[in-house]
TrEMBL record:
Stored PANTHER family: CHROMATE REDUCTASE, NAD(P)H-DEPENDENT FMN REDUCTASE LOT6
Annotated protein name in UniProt: NADPH-dependent FMN reductase
Domain NADPH-dependent FMN reductase-like, first and last residues per copy: 1-142
Superkingdom: Bacteria
Length: 183
């Protein structure tokens, strides 16, 4: 299957991006094709309904990756009880054609215990774009973020966190497969 992962942080060493890279690793281990879009590395222009930004390389690549995907992972840090402005801006550039009937996994990293507000906001956006929210989501916070700090290897991930991430990614991939077969 084709999976697109969007890392929606504007921080070079974001733990949400590191977590998204681990999701990529797990999906690729299962033999899936993964396109990783890092909005820090490939910034997208500010959305304006007056300007479609046609031909902007990063925007066109982002749209193509979403369009071709059978499943989508959206990863964000939690800022002030919401998703990052960078991810919200990117999502404002696309409509239902990019998400309709596709499985979407919401992923977040928060400085506090858990990132419920950003995940709830992401799921509302996905519903409005006619995507199918994975019933589970991934959130790391507090000390759990240590597993995804710069320099940490996959073998450094805390066993409880690793078990949860693997279970949720497996559930997302199963949902993606079910939805892909129905189309």
């Amino acid at each position: 299957m084709k999976i697109t992962i969007v890392a929606g942080s504007n921080q070079k060493l974001a733990t949400s991006t590191k977590l998204a890279q681990y999701v990529q690793h797990l999906a690729e281990q299962e033999g899936h094709q993964v396109k990783f879009v890092d909005l820090y590395q490939s910034p997208i222009p500010f959305y304006s309904p007056d300007d479609a930004h046609g031909g902007h390389e990063a925007l066109e690549s982002f749209k193509q990756a979403l369009h071709e995907a059978e499943g989508i992972v959206l990863a964000t840090p939690e800022y002030h009880s919401g998703i990052s402005g960078v991810l919200k801006n990117a999502l404002d550039h696309v409509g239902q054609d990019y998400f309709k009937n596709k499985a979407v996994l919401s992923v977040s990293s928060a400085g506090g215990a858990i990132a419920v507000s950003s995940l709830t906001q992401l799921q509302a956006i996905v519903r409005n774009l006619h995507g199918i929210n994975c019933p589970e989501w991934l959130s790391i916070g507090g000390d759990q973020r240590n597993s995804f700090q710069t320099g940490a290897a996959h073998s450094d991930i805390h066993p409880d966190v690793d078990k949860r991430v693997r279970r949720v990614v497996s559930s997302f991939l199963d949902l993606t497969k079910q939805l892909t077969v129905k189309q």
